[in-house]
Design goal:
By secondary structure, chain A is an alpha+beta fold. In chain A, about 30% of the residues lie in helices and about 30% in strands. The longest helix of chain A is centred in the middle third of the chain and has 15 residues. Chain B has one domain. The radius of gyration of chain B is 21 Å and the shape is globular. The chains are: A alpha+beta (about 300), B alpha/beta (about 375).
């Protein structure tokens, strides 16, 4: 069963009551929220995601709760609660959906489990994956959104999951975050893309999320192996260019982008080394999306 | 859904574990996270040989990961203790460890899966500023530099320095000169504890309190405190210590009770023994029944405190919230301050705390914390 198979009242009722159980790659979320924006966003962006049976086990339980005291009615807020504790500063009610997505990321990046987590986009062709780690503002999500409309399969736009058991990259297949100018860029690049309403004036400016195409979701439980480790950088008027990066330098940079490499100890270090060893490591600068897509096609063809 | 405390029954020895639904597993893990007992729970499952059979794959992944994380924390804490010891040694001082760090370095049972971030040490009162300078030279600086009020609160009324944090590593040290505030109803002379401290075998330079004092410190810490976030964890520590010392220390039980009388800590020990028995079934030897009864406070106080503490020792998770819980926790909070300070100090302090709670320092913003 998919989320889309639930009528809107049933969806809202679950969100208000026992929670909506959603499978995202190897994890299951229990989502609870009375906010209409959360229900609306989920109905649109998670429509093709699998609904987990009511008696399933959820790895993470995310509550996007209303504000407290007067803030329940006046200048209403949304709060992320985990285990009954408020994790972030409350946000305006209008930011509830964006808060949900950030909260869902926080669960994976901060709670202990059996994956090495890297702040990175991951796309794949067949079983060969490209890892795209980058700091905010380097155009990672835009590049990722364009790639998944150009013949690459989405694993994740934000969080690379490296299994400690077999070193494979696992999909998460959650909606792709877009912000500010990139919302428009992706609408123009892929007119068929489903993008939800824009949340204005967040800490990151205007944010929105793009639905993952159904054929990518169909492969949500199919891992891929690391093949390329590419550090992307969008620069105005830059030429489209790959340049080789030493493995040592790539390892240090990748460790910096990892959330839990420190808390995993030796297993985390080994997993990181295995990723770098398996990959061709490169920097990638670009300014034009169409040229970037062609460059990634050539990369795949040459492999 | 019943509002069951699923967590504490898991630590009763040889109990046959009941079947849990998926939702109950979620609640059990959530309760253990709030009580800082996830790794400890993982150990108790593997000790009883239940990991493979009874724990489904979903929860098992989280339990195993928490155990790995706890082991790493322990490694880091051990390294930090050695650095603290070196800093104190350079000033000619010895390093007497309290609580988590002591259990860890002495290899005592509560250390398994125990997660802690602060290292607590005990120094003689006359050497307090010497210790502070030695640690400062080692890179540990006072935490709340921005709050003069906190600094004054600690220095005038507490039994410890304001927490010191390392400038690079973020580790925190609490430097105590005794185990209870000097203004409190349970006023213990730190020198009496230090004179009985014991060296830790195999770790030159590191010391712990003697076994009876370890238990009494844990008891007074738990039952004179106003907040019970780690209450169940601290009670489990005591359960482990009682069982361990009863086997390994000659005359442990009679000495424990004698020491509680000597230090004026009968009431905290009574509460500890009452709740350890209530939750985990550990009892003092039958021949000491009269001495154990003599620890009890007057009837009304005893009954009231038993009720309040029974509520406060429940995990603080929404899945096991009970009516009256907020009131019980508030009463215990007020009581802890009542025990700690005379009224003319207490009232202004609580007003100040309420103000600070109403206008707290900011949490991370969602967007920044998620690094999206």
């Amino acid at each position: 069963m998919r989320i889309a198979d639930l009528p809107a009242p049933a969806l809202a009722q679950r969100l208000r009551g026992p929670g909506l159980l959603i499978g995202a790659g190897p994890f299951v979320y229990r989502l609870r929220s009375p906010h209409a924006l959360v229900a609306e966003g989920l109905a649109l962006l998670y429509a093709d995601m699998p609904l987990v049976a009511d008696d399933g086990f959820a790895d993470f339980c995310v509550d996007i709760a209303p504000g407290q005291g007067l803030r329940r009615w006046f200048r209403r807020q949304s709060h992320f609660r985990y285990d009954g504790l408020s994790v972030f500063e409350p946000l305006p009610e209008a930011h509830a959906y964006a808060l949900l997505e950030w909260a869902m990321n926080w669960c994976i990046s901060s709670q202990p489990h059996d994956y090495l987590v890297i702040h990175s986009a991951v796309v794949a062709r067949g079983d060969r994956a490209v890892i795209l780690p980058a700091p905010p503002g380097s155009g990672k999500s835009t590049l990722c959104a364009a790639l998944i409309h150009s013949g690459w399969r989405l694993l994740s736009d934000e969080l690379a999951l490296v299994s400690l058991a077999d070193g494979q990259l696992w999909p998460l297949c959650r909606p792709v975050g877009l912000k500010n100018a990139s919302i428009r860029i992706i609408q123009d690049f892929a007119p068929a893309a489903v993008i939800n309403r824009v949340t204005h004036d967040t800490n990151k400016g205007d944010v929105s999320h793009m639905k993952v195409p159904a054929e990518h979701l169909a492969q949500m439980l199919v891992p891929a192996r690391p093949k390329w480790l590419i550090f992307p950088r969008w620069q105005r008027d830059a030429a489209t260019n790959f340049s080789a990066r030493s493995r040592a330098s790539a390892l240090v940079d990748l460790a910096r982008h990892s959330f839990n490499f420190g808390t995993l100890g030796e297993a985390g270090f080994d997993a990181l080394c295995d990723v770098v060893t398996a990959c061709e490591c490169m920097d990638f600068s670009y300014s034009r999306l169409d040229e970037a897509m062609a460059a990634f096609d050539r990369l795949d063809a040459a492999a | 859904m019943s509002h069951a405390d699923l967590l504490s029954p898991r630590f009763v020895p040889n109990v046959t574990a009941a079947f849990l639904t998926s939702l109950q597993w979620e609640h059990l893990l959530g309760q253990s996270r709030r009580a800082l007992l996830t790794a400890r729970l993982a150990h108790s499952f593997s000790d009883s040989g239940q990991f493979a059979g009874e724990v489904p794959a979903g929860p098992r992944r989280h339990l195993e990961a928490s155990r790995i994380t706890a082991e790493l924390w322990a490694q880091i804490a051990k390294a930090e203790v050695l650095r603290i010891e070196r800093a104190l040694r350079s000033a000619g001082m010895t390093c007497v460890l309290l609580k988590g760090a002591a259990y860890l370095c002495a290899g005592l049972p509560p250390s398994r899966g125990r997660v802690f971030s602060d290292v607590d040490i005990l120094v003689p009162q006359v050497e307090l500023s010497k210790a502070e300078s030695a640690l400062l030279a080692g890179g540990w600086i006072p935490d709340h530099l921005d709050s003069e009020y906190d600094q004054r609160y600690y220095r005038e009324w507490m039994h410890e320095l304001p927490p010191l944090s390392h400038v690079q590593r973020d580790s925190t040290i609490d430097v105590h000169y005794t185990i209870t505030p000097p203004t409190s109803a349970f006023n213990v002379d730190g020198a009496l504890l230090l004179v009985k401290a014991r060296p830790i075998e195999g770790h030159p330079g590191l010391w712990t309190l003697q076994p009876t004092d370890m238990v009494l410190h844990s008891a007074v810490h738990l039952f004179a405190e106003g907040e019970f976030h780690h209450g169940l964890r601290d009670l489990l520590d005591m359960d482990d210590l009682l069982k361990h010392f009863a086997v390994h220390e000659p005359d442990f039980w009679p000495e424990l009770i004698a020491r509680a009388n000597e230090l004026g800590l009968k009431v905290p020990l009574h509460h500890a023994l009452f709740h350890v028995e209530r939750l985990f079934g550990t009892r003092p030897p039958a021949e000491l029944a009269a001495e154990v009864r003599a620890l009890r406070p007057p009837w009304l106080l005893r009954v009231l405190m038993a009720r309040l503490l029974t509520i406060a020792l429940r995990p603080m998770h929404p899945s096991c919230h009970v009516p009256g819980e907020g009131l019980a926790r508030w009463l215990l909070y007020v009581r802890s301050h009542w025990l700690r300070m005379p009224l003319h100090l207490l009232v202004p302090h609580l007003v100040r705390k309420a103000w600070m709670a109403q206008f707290p320092k900011k949490k991370p913003a969602a967007a920044a914390a998620a690094q999206v």
